[in-house]
Amino acid sequence: VLDIGAAYGETCLEALRRGATDYTANDIEPRHLKILARRVAEDLPSKLPNLKLISGGIPHPKFNDFIPTSSLDAVLLDSILHFLDPVQVTEALHQIFSWLKPGGKVFALMGTINLAVFKSEVRESLERDVKTFVETVKTQGQIDPKDIPGFTSNVSEDFDFSICPKETLEAQFNFSDGRFFRFHLETAKYLFETAGFIIEEIVYTPINTFPYKLNGRERVAVFAKKP
Ligand SMILES: C[S@@+](CC[C@H](N)C(=O)[O-])C[C@H]1O[C@@H](n2cnc3c(N)ncnc32)[C@H](O)[C@@H]1O
After folding, report:
1. This protein's superkingdom (predicted)?
2. CATH fold label, 58-225
3. pTM over 0.90, yes/no
């Protein structure tokens, strides 16, 4: 299993506890991986031989030196793809596809435009852009990844500061440098399918906490497999 953006290892520790024997944790922040490794060393020392660490941001051509083609059973992308732009998501999904064994699975969870922190007009405008995107894909079959709607490199200009103070919101998003890709069920479906995956399930899931809770569609979850 490869856990991309594993952070402090919540999922990793649980997987090792439940018997995972070959778990690779990746993160762009080496200090997150240090914390993860320390937690495993302290809480589950006998499981250390079952853990590998890969530091760096996906997509990354060098990762192919450490992760052989068709070697993985599963890849986890929990709350990480929305920090990439659609060109990077396309590259990342192509890499992941190549690393999975046939029948291997990917599980992904991404933020959407339906977070209460965004201005309603931004949400409405993106809904319109996604409609146009769906029509274009229907007529043209494919679209240049950079034209897939939803990405911003300055997320703070789309925040509704009447919901939550500016400093609180910017502090929560500052580690991504203001970059945020607001996914939509349609754009997520397109990105996974064009990378070659078969989607087994794709659903909106809620975030029920302040300041994000809006309408039950705050995140989109994708369960897909390599044929
Ligand atoms: C919101 S946290 C999610 C943590 C964990 N997956 C979870 O769901 O609890 C995002 C993590 O992804 C990492 N990250 C951000 N961009 C990344 C990239 N391009 N490649 C790998 N990790 C990345 C961050 O350093 C952070 O630890």
Report:
1. Eukaryota
2. Rossmann fold (3.40.50)
3. yes
